[in-house]
């Protein structure tokens, strides 16, 4: 069965693409689809409304991002869309701009809070490891009817060819289903990461949303420029670990840094942030990273204050 690959050229192509996207992530079911594309009530009308909203949102994301490249594969015999991939070509570090964006596609309140917490964890690896020019595969999917027919191969070849042409590294946050495909194209995986919605004394609503959105595990995957792992090649997560060891900050030093600020309540810093956020706060104090990466505005504000404190006390 012959296929052709194209880059999307108009908004009119998105409705079919999103229908295939939903079909792909619902068979087998992947909880990540509900973090990005939730259904807020019951019934077919609610589902149709969610698909419509997710289509409009993805069109907006694509229009507003000059690095965005949506690729689609079509069946030349029927014209049907067999699969699609969302690639980004970053010619500079994409994670320098301050952003306190939230998951506004969730209603305000606990629904959005838990989504922000999980999204922050999902985005953390790429924002930590890939602060450099690179090619990024945001999403890749094949319609269930077209799997194991070479559709994924076409979409991967498009992206790795771009990366090799530009001499850039590549990155993916992989699901269990996609991981073997990416390994075939020279990507290597870090340890799997499970999203965590834990918090002190969760409400019934929080627990309900936790069951709706989880479990979800993913693997940060990286491909060196050219796709070949030469002897001595250091993976991004290994470099991060080495930097942590070199800096050598202990938990007591981090607590001391926080206690130096009259603007930050140490009790709030230690107890008011969920455990995953505490981990990121410790990491950022060690590495000197930008605290604005975190999607929860209150936490981002605290992080920016902590960075200011760290800079001021570094000379003490």
Which key terms come to mind for this protein?
316 residues, alpha+beta, 12 helices, globular, disordered C terminus
Task: Characterise this structure.
The chain is an alpha+beta fold. About 45% of the residues lie in helices and about 15% in strands. The chain has twelve helices and eight strands. The protein has helices spanning about 15-25, 30-35, 45-65, 110-130, 150-165, 180-185, 205-215, 235-245, 250-260, 265-270, 275-285, 295-315, and strands at about 5, 70-75, 80-90, 135-140, 170-175, 190, 195, 215-225. Strands 1, 2, 3, 4, 5, 6, 7 and 8 form an eight-stranded mixed beta sheet that branches. Helix 1 crosses helix 3 and helix 4 crosses helix 7 (about 205-215). The model is unreliable at about 245-255, about 255-280, about 285-300 and about 310-315 (pLDDT under 50).
